[in-house]
Write a structure and sequence with these properties.
single chain, 222 residues, alpha+beta, Alpha-Beta Plaits, three-stranded antiparallel beta sheet, 6 helices, 13 strands, 26% strand, Rev_trsase/Diguanyl_cyclase, ribonuclease H, RT_dom, RNA-DNA hybrid ribonuclease activity
Length: 222
């Protein structure tokens, strides 16, 4: 498994005083993932002054637009698009079969990863003069009065992100549509409502979680 990640440039051999626990996990669809636990590292990581936007504030802004058409873009595996600085890599080290490795890309559940990711995507969009949009980390929404207007806005943002080396999958682009989901809400004509599939969840049902919130998952292929 590690050989696959090493050949992709995601990890490399190292010698470090840091060492986080890892274990392989086979998902239900047969795909194997390497899971890394960053709880101890997160506890000693100093805070950052920057922060991601407030979700409720973004929802209020989107409500004020009251447009008829929407499109959303969800950047695929954005963490793997962001290289770690050489001097930062040792703290993400782990040991596999007696050999120590470290990550070369931004880990998904490290304490500051969402903030860094949001800032880099935001900087790329600003540099590319992206048209009016809202962004929450790697989720982006555009709006307009016509489907054509929304398509053009979305296409320009996609090209800006591709130029900045972020990956975009067609399956992660939704719309243009009169009704769309964004930030956990369904949007139509500037109004938001909780999606039906969420409202129908029984309160006494225990949801099935994919793993501990501080675990790192790396896709390793079939």
């Amino acid at each position: 498994m590690i050989c696959d990640l090493e050949s992709q440039g995601m990890v490399s051999k190292t010698h470090s005083r840091f060492n986080s626990p890892i274990w392989p996990v086979r998902k239900s669809e047969g795909e194997q993932r390497l899971t890394e636990d960053y709880r101890a590292l997160n506890e000693v990581t100093l805070p950052l002054s920057a922060a991601v936007p407030d979700m409720l504030e973004l929802q209020s802004k989107l409500e004020s637009k009251a447009e008829k058409w929407y499109a959303t873009i969800d950047i695929a595996n954005p963490f793997f698009s962001i290289p770690l600085a050489e001097e930062c890599r040792p703290q993400f080290a782990f040991t596999w079969r007696g050999v120590q490795y470290t990550l070369n890309r931004l880990p998904q559940v490290w304490k500051h990863s969402p903030t860094i990711r949001h800032g880099l995507i935001q900087a790329a969009l600003e540099k590319g003069d992206a048209l009016e949009h809202l962004q929450y980390i790697n989720d982006i929404i555009v709006w307009g009065n016509t489907a054509g207007e929304v398509f053009d806005k979305g296409e320009k943002i996609i090209q800006i992100l591709l130029k900045a080396s972020f990956a975009i999958k067609k399956s992660k682009v939704k719309g243009p549509a009169r009704e769309i989901q964004f930030l956990g809400m369904k949007w139509q004509d500037g109004w938001r409502q909780i999606p039906t599939d969420v409202m129908n969840v029984q309160p006494d049902c225990e949801p099935s979680l994919p793993g501990h919130p501080q675990e790192e998952h790396f896709p390793l292929g079939p």
